[in-house]
Amino acid sequence: MASRGIGEVLTGAAVLLVAAGFLGFAVAHSGRTAASGYKLHASFDHIDGLNLGADVRIAGVKVGNVLDMHVDPKSFLAEVTLSVNDKIRLPKDTAAEVTSESLLGGKFLNLSPGGDAQDIPQGGTITITQSSISLEQLLGKFIFSAASLTDKSNGANASGPEQKTGGSKATDPEAPK
């Protein structure tokens, strides 16, 4: 009976070691890297769907991560802190945009470098930003505008047949002879 208990414990320990090995491999090869690089800040009206750890990309290539997000209590804007690879120096007129990976995918921060000769310093702020576009809001606006167009076209026909003005003597029975 004691030998059976030791065998079960050793088998359980081996399974746990293998599972820990798989977990370590998955974390090491997940594509997420530790936040290295220099920090920048940006303010947005909306950052719907952007998460901590989301990619920061330039031309579709990952160059950093989103480190922190909070609301500024004075301006009520979403403040985003991001890291950018030390090898990449961004011009002062760089634009930041919250972009969707796909219709169903998550969001990431896309940077579009400008042409300014001066670079944004460590801890600097990206001033040109474009907020997240909500698919639900766009769909709602489309439905509302389509409905209002339908109402306007029905409203023009609801007033009845058009009145003739200035008819000719031959066809107008009330015209003086």
Question: What is the fold's blueprint, element by element?
Answer:
Blueprint: H1 2-28, E1 38-44, E2 55-58, E3 61-71, E4 78-84, E5 95-100, E6 107-112, E7 125-126, E8 128-130, H2 135-157
Parallel strand pairs: 1-7, 2-6, 5-8
Antiparallel strand pairs: 1-4, 2-3, 3-4, 5-6
Written description of the protein model:
With 177 residues, this protein is an alpha/beta fold. It has a domain of 99 residues. Helices cover 28% and strands 26% of the residues. It has an eight-stranded mixed sheet, with no helix packed on it. The chain is flat and about 90 Å long. About 4% of the residues have low confidence.
Short structural summary:
The chain has 177 residues and is of the alpha/beta class. It is built from two helices and eight strands. Strands 7-1-4-3-2-6-5-8 form an eight-stranded mixed β-sheet, with no helix packed on it.
